[in-house]
Design brief:
The complex is a heterodimer. By secondary structure, chain A is α+β, with helices and mostly antiparallel strands. Chain A is built from 24 helices and 17 strands. Chain A folds into four domains: 177 residues; 92 residues, no CATH class; 67 residues, no CATH class; 84 residues. In chain A, the strands form five sheets. In chain A, strands 1, 2, 5, 6, 7 and 8 form a six-stranded antiparallel β-sheet that branches. In chain A, strands 13, 14, 15, 16 and 17 form a five-stranded antiparallel β-sheet that branches. In chain A, strands 3-4 form a two-stranded antiparallel sheet. In chain A, strand 1 and strand 2 form a beta hairpin. Chain B has four domains: 160 residues, 2-Layer Sandwich (Beta-Lactamase); 63 residues; 81 residues, no CATH class; 55 residues, no CATH class. The chains are: A alpha+beta, B alpha+beta.
């Protein structure tokens, strides 16, 4: 998998030259060289020893069984001990199919009188296919580790001590193997036993490959926490990667009427927080409920809305929460298109809700169903809470998707005709009046902002006869027309706002809105789809 | 359907080569740039900081090495030629392409490698690189490569007689360079999927394809599914699949589900684009109208698409809206919507049920695991959708999921 690192490497460079201090995982001995020479494309072909022009036409790979191979420690150390000009910035190097990422960090040497500075570089080897955003995350991790190590070096010379241990172990093994050739113990094994930094690096590597969340204390003093979103968010779906860019996109489209759904129990989350975590976050989690919108949450936990937005972003990034529209009776849900039902899920579900079958429950949502439709008028409140629990469980597992109603205003049979398109369509005399009215509407949208012009535009519409089409059948009160006109002008009926959003922004009731939709159904076309902000977390729509 | 969008996005993103330079290991001075177009694009200071990656240790010869700096990305393929005649018994050189730091350069890798091999051949044959200090011919060559690759994505290199210096280069060597955009590997094609042309069929020259493709192409009409194409074209099923997969890779066709009046489609959030994008509107009207002379109205088309929601089958829609009267060809309407991603198909999955003895006799049951869609089951068992729905109806252990 391209998200996992192939290897983590520590290189230093100082007045004594550059040296590869530690790498994990370490393969015993490189067998690539001997392999490469003898490997032939087919067993009957001649081995041509000196074929300058056509040597190794097949792509060279430095990855073998998920391990970095074919590059010796010396080569790596010269590559990663960069020139001072390249320090303190992103280091990215691709050799064949391996990509190396790191942040070369300079530290003033500890305890020395000379102004000699030392350079160290924690490099991650990744597969070359790793995307820009993955590379960026690894770079960030390397930078963070660098900052922490520099701090510890300044505080108590931790890095110098560790480097001393590693170098002496390397030398020890090198001299020993000269004397007794049968001893092929890797120096890295010994370093792991002796140096705490090497154990930290090993734990970084293993958390990256397992959970994607790193939480280590370097030198039992400074904490480094890091989250690899691509890994953390992967748990629920195979082959679908959530990049930080997707999360950013989601956070940008976050609105006060959205709510959050914690993916783990609030109490567990509170326990897992570090001691120095923000008290605002704790308050927010204490006040959390999937029925509350962010605005309500902000009011309840006595925080500003921007603060709540930031905390939400944080929770989403760390895969502790996801965005939903707060649960309410009118919410319409349908089975998510990327739902994968595994037998494991079935078991967990029946454990959680004894006597219920996940398949049957999902079958109820095969067609878009609102919570109020699911509820039997005779059912007791107990059943209601059970249903809410089930829906929350299904949403957590990404099995359900909420649908919203979007409204599109189409005054003419040709849609919302723009000004330049007008001339092309003028050939049809019948449509001229309609076109004019549409254009006027656009003009009005641009030029007027105050309610003062409302009446004016109303008369304009009347003159052009745009709303006259229905007056033959029955009369539509002018209040409704006024409302329609206002909503159109504010751009709510361009297909980008769902009913709940219009209700929230304009402070009108659902019934009012539905009335308008019904009365003007000839020009207002409704369409049910998912909220793009929330759908970002579903693989079907992610890309 | 998303892959189509990705493909087009990839095509739009061009990462031109900003500079090509030729560097060598000078026996006295060390690594240096000897020829560069445009001149002085990479300054000496920058080159010195990265020279270790451009003329690397012996172990890394003949590896593609890309180093990303703040502003540039340098892609090279270091080469070493061993020969006693050189000052250090070997001649090291590296031909490098420079792009923007954010550019993707993977597709240039084979080109750099091939061109390095070409230069190497010239050097081995007649010391083209090492013989003289004058690099005007090389500069011309690099200039040509950069121009042609950026403009046409391909370039043909031929060495010519260098009349000015009276050095005869036997003009027999030619190298063709081509930048091939790397598209993601297309997913395996399944029996029940329907290939459909993304552009007019007339655009393609029949003779540029292989024989199998030539035999398959006439049957790709946007309605025949893969298994049917195989039967009608009399080509083995797997060959058709490979062939369609190949066509998908080149962006010639895309896959859509079988059209059936019992199908349920759902509008996506992309449908909004149809109201804003006039180009898309024109194309949609032209594609979905029944008669070219009397095009359908956009509002009717939009209403058709918008009414496609979960639970409304195509049959219901046709009965309610009567597309015939609206001058809409509903089959082509659906095709257009699927290709453009305005709508998506709602496949039906049949999750499994506990087996019992009686059930095992019916071969259909082995597909009731929740991983097969109704189309797939129909295609592999040869039963109609109605028959299978009937079986599901009678058995309370099997449920249908629309998703």
């Amino acid at each position: 998998m391209e998200i996992n690192p192939l290897s983590i490497i520590l290189v230093k460079s100082d007045s004594k030259g550059d040296r590869l201090l530690f790498r994990y995982p370490h393969v015993a001995k490189h067998t690539r060289d001997s392999n490469q020479c003898t490997r032939r494309k087919n067993p009957y072909s001649l081995t041509i020893t000196e074929d300058l022009l056509q040597s190794s036409t097949f792509p060279i790979s430095n990855i073998n069984n998920g391990n970095l191979t074919g590059v010796t420690d010396e080569v790596l150390s010269t590559l990663f001990a960069v020139k001072p000009e390249l320090c303190e910035q992103k280091f990215e190097l691709k050799v064949n199919d391996v990509r190396f990422v790191g942040h070369p960090t300079l530290v003033p040497s500890h305890g020395m009188k000379e102004v000699n500075s030392m350079l160290f570089n924690i490099v991650f080897a990744l597969q070359a296919q790793a995307s820009h955003s993955i590379v960026k995350c690894y770079y960030d991790l390397s930078r963070r580790l660098g900052i922490a190590l520099r701090h510890e070096e300044k505080r108590c010379g931790f890095l110098t001590e560790e480097i001393k241990i590693m170098v002496s172990t390397h030398d020890e093994v090198a001299t020993r193997s000269e004397g007794e050739s049968d001893c092929d113990e890797s120096p890295y094994e010994l370093i792991l036993q002796r140096s705490s930094l090497s154990r930290d690096l090993k734990s970084v590597f293993s958390s990256l490959t397992t959970s994607g969340i790193i939480n280590i204390m370097i030198n039992k003093w400074i904490q480094v926490r890091f989250c690899l979103p691509q890994k953390v968010h992967q748990s629920h779906k195979k082959g679908f990667v959530i990049n930080p860019e997707i999360i950013d996109k989601c956070l940008n489209s976050l609105r006060p009427y959205h709510g959050i759904l914690l993916l783990i129990e609030p109490l567990d989350l509170l326990d897992s927080l570090p001691i120095d975590s923000s008290p605002a976050l704790k308050r927010l989690i204490q006040m959390y409920s999937p029925l509350k919108s962010l605005q309500t949450l902000a009011a309840d936990s006595d925080l500003t809305l921007t603060q709540v937005f930031q905390l939400t972003g944080h929770l989403i990034y760390w895969a502790k929460a996801t965005i939903i529209y707060p649960l309410c009776e009118s919410n319409v849900y349908v089975v998510s298109p990327d739902a994968i039902i595994t037998s494991q899920l079935l078991e967990v579900f029946s454990e959680e809700f004894p006597g219920l079958c996940l398949l049957q429950v999902l079958n109820d949502f095969s067609l878009p169903t609102s919570i109020s439709q699911q509820l039997n008028p005779l059912s007791q409140s107990q059943q209601q809470t059970q249903l809410v629990k089930i829906i929350i469980w299904l949403l957590k597992n990404h099995l359900l998707l909420q649908l919203h109603t979007y409204v599109q205003y189409m005054p003419t049979v040709h849609g919302r005709v723009s000004l330049d398109a007008k001339d092309e369509l003028n050939h049809n005399i019948n449509e001229i009046t309609e076109n004019n009215s549409a254009c006027n509407l656009n003009d009005v949208t641009k030029s007027t902002s105050a309610d003062l012009n409302e009446e004016l535009s109303m008369t304009l519409h009347k003159e052009n006869g745009i709303y006259n089409y229905q007056s033959e059948d029955y009369d539509i009160p002018s209040d409704d027309r006024k409302l329609l006109d206002r909503l159109c002008r504010l751009g709510y009926f361009n297909g980008g706002h769902h009913l709940e959003e219009i209700m929230y922004l304009e402070n009108i009731r659902r019934s009012q809105l539905l009335q308008i939709l019904d009365k003007f159904r000839d020009v207002l076309i409704t369409c049910k789809c998912e909220d793009p902000a929330i759908a970002l977390f579903y693989s079907q729509f992610g890309s | 359907m998303t892959s189509v969008a990705e493909n087009t996005k990839d095509k739009g993103q061009e990462d031109p080569i900003q500079c090509i330079f030729f560097s060598e290991f000078h026996p006295i001075v060390g690594p240096m740039i000897t020829c560069q177009v445009p001149d002085n694009f990479i300054s000496k200071d920058i080159f010195d900081t990265v020279s270790v990656y451009i003329i690397p240790k012996a172990k890394l010869q003949r590896s593609t090495i890309t180093v990303t700096l703040k502003d540039y990305k340098i892609l090279g393929f270091p080469v070493k030629i061993d020969n006693k005649k050189y000052a250090r018994n070997a001649f090291y050189f590296n031909l490098c392409f420079v792009c923007e730091a954010k550019a993707r350069t993977v597709h240039y890798e084979p080109v750099v490698k091939k061109m390095s091999d070409f230069l190497m051949a010239l050097e081995v044959e007649n010391c083209f690189l090492s013989a003289s200090e004058d690099k005007t011919r090389l500069a011309e060559m690099l200039q040509q490569v950069m121009q042609d690759l950026n403009l046409h994505k391909m370039c043909t290199l031929t060495d010519i007689k260098d009349v000015k210096h009276n050095i005869l280069i036997e003009g027999t060597m030619t190298s063709h360079l081509k930048v091939i955009k790397l598209a993601p590997e297309p997913k395996p094609v399944l029996d029940h999927q329907v290939p459909i042309f993304l552009e007019g069929r007339e655009v393609f020259q029949m003779d540029q394809w292989d024989l199998t493709t030539q035999q398959v192409l006439p049957y790709i009409d946007g309605f025949n599914h893969v298994a049917r194409i195989a039967a009608e074209a009399d080509v083995e099923n797997n060959l058709v699949k490979n062939c369609v997969q190949n066509l998908i890779y080149y962006g010639v066709v895309t896959l859509i589900p079988i059209f059936q009046y019992s199908n349920v489609y759902a509008a996506t959030s992309k449908l909004k684009e149809l109201t804003e994008n006039t180009k898309l509107q024109e194309r949609c009207i032209a594609y979905a109208s029944k008669f070219p002379r009397q095009p359908a109205y956009l509002r009717d088309i939009f209403r058709m698409y918008a009414s496609m929601t979960h639970g409304n089958s195509m049959r219901d829609l046709c009965q309610r809206l009567n597309p015939q009267n609206l001058r809409i060809n509903e089959r082509r309407l659906v095709q257009f919507g699927l290709i453009e991603g305005l709508i998506r198909r709602y496949p039906i999955y049949l999750p499994g049920s506990p087996y019992n003895e009686e059930i095992k006799n019916n071969p259909v049951y082995k597909y009731f695991t929740g991983t097969y869609s109704l189309d797939e089951i129909c295609c592999s068992t040869g039963q109609s959708a109605a028959q299978i729905e009937d079986i599901v109806e009678r058995d309370p252990n099997v449920v249908m999921l629309w998703k």
